[in-house]
TrEMBL record:
This protein's record includes keyword Ligase: no
Similarity section: Belongs to the PMEI family.
Signal in keyword set: yes
One Pfam family per UniProt: PMEI
The protein's name: Pectinesterase inhibitor domain-containing protein
InterPro entries xref list: Invertase/methylesterase_inhib (IPR035513), PCW_Enzyme_Inhibitor (IPR052421), Pectinesterase_inhib_dom (IPR006501), PMEI_plant (IPR034086)
GO molecular function: pectinesterase inhibitor activity
Signal peptide: 1-21
Keywords, sorted A to Z: Disulfide bond, Signal
Length: 176
């Protein structure tokens, strides 16, 4: 008897949770608030049972993967910079901006805040990811000398910035 009741509760839970998904029209509305709605729509995909929290989690996972891959790229660029001290210095600074004390740490913190339900904190932590990426590419202050980076790093950074832009818009929709 307990087994049957548990099964019924489980089925009702599944039915209830699938009806909490956000409609495609809301996903389109969210994506229309980004600079690149087509990128946002492709990132979020179509999942009628996904909640706004599910979509935010999905984007955090994508951000983590992109940041991790960029860290690997930067490590390779440091190794390849050889006798170019300016390049080596730039890439080492970028490694700090992307590492545990930078973007990767901020992605993890964003994740933690999402799990705690601190949705305003999610927005602030996501903004920190964007700042870390920008500090790598543009420098920490306007007076920092720019580095003419011809590597794939700026392209990787642009993708992460686009992912974070979606995360920022999603975070504003959390809790509403």
């Amino acid at each position: 008897m307990i087994c049957k009741v548990s099964f019924v509760v489980f089925v009702l839970f599944l039915l209830g949770s699938s009806s909490n998904g956000i409609p495609d029209s809301e996903v389109k509305s969210i994506c229309s608030k980004t600079q690149n709605p087509a990128f946002c729509l492709s990132l979020l995909g179509s999942n009628p049972s996904a909640t706004i929290v599910d979509l935010t989690q999905h984007v955090i996972d994508i951000a983590r993967g992109n940041v991790s891959n960029t860290i690997k790229l930067i490590s390779n660029l440091i190794a390849q910079s050889g006798k170019n001290p300016k390049a080596k210095e730039h890439y080492k600074a970028c490694l700090e901006h992307f590492g545990e004390d930078g973007a990767l740490g901020d992605v993890d913190y964003t994740q933690e805040l999402l799990h705690k339900g601190d949705y305003q904190g999610v927005n602030l932590a996501a903004a920190s990811i964007a700042d870390d990426v920008d500090d790598c590419i543009s420098g920490e202050s306007p007076t920092d000398p720019s580095f003419n980076d011809l590597s794939p790093l700026p392209s990787h950074a642009k993708v992460i910035e686009s992912v974070v832009a979606v995360l920022l818009v999603l975070s504003k929709s959390l809790g509403h």
